[in-house]
Specification:
Number of domains: 2
Structural class: alpha/beta
CATH superfamily of the largest domain: NIF3 (NGG1p interacting factor 3)-like
Radius of gyration: 19 Å
Strand order of the largest sheet: 5-6-8-9-10-7
Shape: elongated
Number of strands: 11
CATH architecture of the largest domain: 3-Layer(aba) Sandwich
Largest sheet: 6 strands, mixed
């Protein structure tokens, strides 16, 4: 498939023009015109690029790409080395951030909910149809420790649990990655627990004082699944060869 045709299909599927994001979404670095073999990953780091080069991939598709708002615009050092490797090897780089978080079928939030058995999913911010946070419920009430164990089984990673004091968890809100500050909106709605990837110092106090359980399950760990679901779509719908590479990240 032509690289720009693939970009158009992905852009339309994920409705990138509906989002005001922290980075450009879509084809970020142009490589060879024909794309058949794609390496999938969470972040376009050097290790992932090196694997794509070794496997002679035509493209890399990630959640975290390049050119973030607020970073230096100079292409030097680490950024230069990454971009140089992509260009010299003709590897296209596709990246989708918020559009891949919130997609109703393939997104990170939907995929995490499936893994954890969360049903009746709806936007955490009902006034915002593109809300990055979601809210739902479990089929049966869980204790704080039981939810912690469920997260660990699903993600193969022990979450950091801040006990909010409630004896039962029936409702839950979540936002993969760095969505910890949405905990306040969840607590104000009386939701029993909130799950995200990261945690800030203030998150601990909010959870304790507003009476909501908080689980920091890992930024990388909670965002491995959207890009894999997107890769499955590419293989099924467009007959492209896709391989997911999980570069371990403890954060």
């Amino acid at each position: 498939m032509k690289n720009k045709k693939l970009a158009n299909k992905l852009d339309q599927l994920l409705e990138i023009h509906q989002f005001k994001d922290y980075c450009p979404n879509g084809l970020q670095i142009e490589g060879k015109e024909e794309v058949q073999k794609i390496i999938l990953g969470v972040t376009a780091n050097q290790a992932l690029i090196d694997i794509a080069v070794a496997q002679k991939a035509d493209a890399i598709l990630v959640h975290h790409g390049f050119f973030w708002r607020g970073e230096s615009e100079n292409i030097v050092g680490m950024k230069y080395k990454r971009i140089k490797a992509l260009i010299e090897n003709g590897i296209n780089l596709y990246a989708y951030h918020l559009p891949l978080d919130v997609h109703s079928e393939l997104g990170n939030n939907t995929q995490l909910a499936k893994l954890l058995g969360i049903t009746d999913r709806r936007p955490l911010e009902p006034w915002n149809k593109r809300s990055v946070g979601r809210v739902g419920k479990f089929s049966e009430a869980l204790t704080g420790d039981q939810l912690s164990a469920r997260i660990e089984r699903a993600l193969q990673r022990s979450p950091l649990h801040i006990d909010g004091g409630k004896s039962e968890i029936k409702t839950v809100a979540w936002c993969t990655g760095g969505g910890q500050d949405l905990i306040t909106i969840a607590a104000e709605q009386g939701i029993d627990a909130f799950i995200s990837g990261e945690i800030s110092e203030r998150t601990v106090h909010i959870a304790r004082e507003m009476g909501i359980h908080y689980y920091a399950a890992g930024h990388h760990a909670t965002e491995r699944y959207g890009v894999q679901a997107l890769g499955e779509w590419l293989h099924k719908e467009l007959d492209l060869e896709v391989t997911f590479i999980d570069i371990d990240n403890p954060v």
